[in-house]
Amino acid sequence: MEPRFKITLSDRTLGNGLSTFHLQQIRSILLDRGMVLLPSDTCYALAAIPGDKEVYKLINKILNRGKLPMSLAFPNFERVQYYVKVNVIVANLIEVFTPGPITVVCKPLSENVREKKVKDVINSTDGTIGVRISDSHIEREVAGCSFFPITTAAVRDENGNVVQDFNKAIEIVTNGTQKNKFTNWAVIEGNNFLSQHSTVVRVDYSSNEVIILRKGLITEQQIKKGIENRFPQWAREEWP
Q1: Are 144 and 23 in contact (CB under 8 A)?
Q2: Looking at the DSSP assignment, which residues form a beta bridge with residue 35?
Q3: How far apart are CA 134 and CA 115, in angstroms?
Q4: What pLDDT digit, counting tens, does each position of 117-161 carry?
Q5: For the residues of 26-65, what is the DSSP string, one character each?
Q6: 103, 199 in Cβ contact below 8 A?
Q7: pLDDT tens-digit series, residues 28-81
């Protein structure tokens, strides 16, 4: 199915952002269980609010994607704290390396009822949540246009490579939506993607270790150097 609307580069504001009108359009689509094809930091991705398991299943069908967990994209650190447990290590990783190409796998905030629901609908088999604050300001704007975080599943071609071409991304999602008779989606054009995929790390809360799950643009050496002997600003706020 064709998208309900497209936002091209020429539609951007003078500062290269999304207009309030377009953000309101996007918000309406997301809150109505719709999806948005948008530029993430390394490729195009399909975004939605993870309201229930059916959203996860539909994204997988549209993108012909396996049953892999999905990370959640947030607009800022403040919003992250509503969903995951933050300690000094998590705070350092987020403060030093985001916005940027890194996913930080964290424990959920168990006392938060919303979180118990979210970890089910992103297929998190161990109950953890991959947290992203993207280097793409468009993705951050979309993640912040409602109170909820968004899933951003990478669009891949028939060879499994991530897609950075606008028309190719539209073609893939159009074919997927037609097969699944899904009409409630929109498109945002992007550019200036990063050349390598993001780094994925897991935080061990008992040992305060950072475990590299996938090597990427941010190296293990950079991570160690960036957080070593550092007192995060978050701690100053939390522990006056």
Answers
A1: no
A2: 185
A3: 21
A4: 666 788 888 889 999 999 999 999 999 999 899 998 999 999 999
A5: HHHHHHTT-EEEEE-SSSEEEEE---SHHHHHHHHHHHT-
A6: yes
A7: 999 999 999 999 999 999 999 998 889 999 999 999 998 889 999 999 999 999
Task: Write the burial class of residue 23 (CB in 10 Å: 0-12 exposed, 13-18 middle, 19+ buried).
Answer: middle
CB atoms near residue 208 (< 10 Å): 12
pTM > 0.90: yes
The half-sphere exposure of 126 on its side-chain side, counting CA atoms within 13 A, is 7
3-state helix, strand, coil in the chain (%, to 5): 35, 20, 45
Cβ 153 vs Cβ 63: under 8 Å: yes
Specify the long-range contacts of residues 191-194, CB closer than 8 Å, at least 24 apart.
191/9, 191/39, 193/39, 193/41, 193/42, 193/43, 193/164, 194/41, 194/42, 194/101, 194/135
The domain defined by 6-86+113-197 carries CATH number 2.115.10.20:
no
